[in-house]
Amino acid sequence: AQSVTQLDSQVPVFEEAPVELRCNYSSSVSVYLFWYVQYPNQGLQLLLKYLSGSTLVKGINGFEAEFNKSQTSFHLRKPSVHISDTAEYFCAVSSSYNTDKLIFGTGTRLQVFP
Amino acid sequence: DAGVIQSPRHEVTEMGQEVTLRCKPISGHNSLFWYRQTMMRGLELLIYFNNNVPIDDSGMPEDRFSAKMPNASFSTLKIQPSEPRDSAVYFCASSSLSTSSYEQYFGPGTRLTVT
């Protein structure tokens, strides 16, 4: 079975500052990793995903994440945030053998202040 | 494409009443998922279908919950009887098995309040 831990429930940051949202996973098999974003009163939207290949993946809205197998991490980063990035961010994992079943972390609330 | 469509967007009902949530997946998608989101438990997968067939319903809380997918363009999640602890936002998502993108597309959700 897989599990995901998002270490920070809330991350406050000022506009134009860099940000890192942390995600660690646990699995006995190879995994696919995802970051989803949820804006207020909306459904989730895929930001980026790691399936294979380069460990640094780039997503929409200037976000990127790095897969680190030895540390079982998939941290999300953005070099300069905007007010519009204020949202809830979810890390998710699936096994590469059962890609249908996504296990989500508890979410990190990113609050960007002017 | 209109995206995943869910109805109603908000539902307020009294304990003991039957509640039916509806979902129309993206045309051409052949996997459909039902999730529940609460502050206490986060985002939980309740059940998912591939090609209209239920594959895994291990997340369905109890027998009061049931889900159907009579055709490729429609699914329902029913709670009978409803209880206050069922209050949550229920999301439907769909994906395409054929593209191997593994992306799930979420609807806007139904906010259910049981009083």
Written account of the structure:
- The complex is a heterodimer of chains A (114) and B (115).
- With 114 residues, chain A is mainly beta.
- Helices cover 0% and strands 53% of the residues of chain A.
- Chain A contains no helices and 12 strands.
- The relative contact order of chain A is 0.33.
- Chain B is built from no helices and 11 strands.
- In chain B, the strands form 2 sheets. In chain B, strands 2, 4, 5, 6, 9, 10 and 11 form a 7-stranded mixed sheet that branches. A 4-stranded antiparallel sheet of chain B has the order 1-3-8-7, with no helix packed on it.
- The radius of gyration of chain B is 13 Å and the shape is globular.
Key features of this structure:
heterodimer, A: 114 residues, mainly beta, 4-stranded antiparallel β-sheet, 12 strands, 0% helix, B: 115 residues, 7-stranded mixed β-sheet
Q: What is the beta-strand fraction of chain B?
A: over 45%
**What letter string, H or E per element, gives the SSE order of chain A?**
EEEEEEEEEEEE
How many strand units of chain B?
11
Beginning-to-end CA distance, first to last residue of chain B:
36 Å
Distance between the termini of chain A: 41 Å
Q: Which structural class fits the helix and strand makeup of chain B? A: mainly beta
How are helices and strands ordered from N to C of chain B?
Answer: EEEEEEEEEEE
Number of helices of chain B: 0
What does the largest sheet of chain B look like? 7 strands, mixed
Helix content range of chain B: under 10%
Which stretches of chain A of 5+ consecutive residues score pLDDT under 50? none
Helix content of chain A: under 10%
Oligomer category:
heterodimer
